[in-house]
Specification:
This protein is an alpha/beta fold. It has helices spanning 2-26, 55-61, 100-108, 122-135, 148-156, 181-184, 203-213, 239-253; strands at residues 62-66, 72-76, 85-89, 112-117, 141-146, 166-170, 175-176, 179-180, 192-197, 220-225. The strands form two sheets. The chain has an eight-stranded mixed sheet, with helices on both faces. Strands 7-8 form a two-stranded antiparallel sheet. α4 packs across α5. It starts with a helix and ends with a helix. The model is unreliable at 1-40 (pLDDT under 50).
Length: 254
C-alpha cells in the first residue's frame, strides 16, 4: 500500500523536471520569437500584441527595451529597416497601435522604427528608445510624437547626446503630466517640425509659442492646418501632410 502511494510521487517529480527543462529550452535567445531580429529585448511568455498585432506580428516585432530606472517598456519594432532610427511616441488615448501603419510604411522605406508602448515614463522611454536604436546601429536618430508623445519628444531631445537629427511634434501640449516642452524647446538644437490644427482647442496657440521659442533650432517650421480640428496622428490622415512629414524625415535622416 505504501509503495503504491510513493510511485506516483516519483513520476510527478520526474514529470516536473521534464517540464522545467523544456521551459528552460524555450526561453533561450529567440526561443519565444520575441526578438527583433537584431538581438532585441526578449522576455518569457506570450509577446504583447498591444491590442492590434496578429500573433505572427507580435512574435516577430513585439519587443521590450530598458528604461533608465531598470524597468522595461514594450514597443512595436517592425523588421527590415537598416537606416536612420526613428522613435514614435503615441498620444494619451492610444498605444503603439496608433503608429502601426506609419511604422510599417517607414520600415519599408528603410528606417529602423521603434513605436513605444508607453507605461507612463514618457521622457525616460524616449531616451531609452533612442539608446536602443543607436545600440542597434542607427547612425542618425529621428523623434516623432503625437499629442503627449509630442511633448515627450520635445522634452527629451535636449537631453540626448548626441542630439537627435530631427524632431516632429504633432499637436503637442506645452505641458503634460510633469513634462514641460515649453521650457525645453529654447534648448533644442535639432531641426523641428511642428504641426497643429487651428480648431484644436488651445493646442494651436501653445504650438505657435513653442515654435517661436525654438530659437536655437537651425530649422524650425510650423504647419498650421486651417479650418480643421484633427489631433495628433489624425493630422497625418491627409496625404499631403504625411508627405510633408516624410520629406522632413528624409531630409535629415538620409
Amino acid at each position: 500500500m505504501t509503495a503504491a502511494l510513493r510511485v506516483p510521487g516519483l513520476l510527478c517529480a520526474a514529470a516536473a523536471l521534464f517540464v522545467t527543462a523544456s521551459l528552460a529550452g524555450c526561453s533561450s535567445d529567440g526561443g519565444d520569437g520575441r526578438g527583433d531580429g537584431d538581438g532585441g529585448g526578449v522576455s518569457a511568455g506570450k509577446p504583447d500584441d498591444f491590442g492590434c498585432l496578429t500573433p505572427e506580428e507580435a512574435a516577430r516585432a513585439s519587443i521590450t527595451f530598458p528604461v533608465g530606472d531598470g524597468s522595461e517598456t514594450g514597443a512595436y519594432a517592425p523588421r527590415g529597416g537598416s537606416g536612420a532610427g526613428i522613435v514614435l511616441a503615441h498620444q494619451s488615448d492610444g498605444t503603439a497601435c496608433q503608429w502601426k501603419d506609419k511604422a510599417d510604411e517607414l520600415s519599408k522605406a528603410g528606417y529602423r522604427v521603434l513605436a513605444v508602448n508607453s507605461n507612463g515614463q514618457e521622457v525616460a522611454e524616449v531616451i531609452g528608445a533612442a539608446a536602443y536604436l543607436r545600440d542597434k546601429g542607427a547612425k542618425k536618430l529621428l523623434l516623432m510624437g503625437a499629442s503627449k508623445g509630442g511633448t515627450a519628444v520635445l522634452a527629451a531631445a535636449p537631453r540626448l547626446e548626441p542630439r537627435p537629427d530631427a524632431v516632429v511634434a504633432l499637436s503637442a501640449p506645452t505641458r503634460y503630466a510633469g513634462m514641460n516642452a515649453l521650457r525645453a524647446v529654447p534648448e533644442l538644437t535639432s531641426p523641428v517640425l511642428y504641426m497643429v490644427a487651428d480648431l484644436d482647442g488651445d493646442f494651436g496657440s501653445g504650438v505657435r509659442e513653442m515654435n517661436e521659442k525654438s530659437t536655437k533650432s537651425p530649422d524650425h517650421e510650423l504647419v498650421y492646418v486651417q479650418d480643421e480640428s484633427a489631433h495628433g496622428v489624425a493630422l497625418l490622415h491627409d496625404d499631403a501632410r504625411w508627405a510633408k512629414v516624410r520629406g522632413f524625415l528624409a531630409k535629415y535622416g538620409s
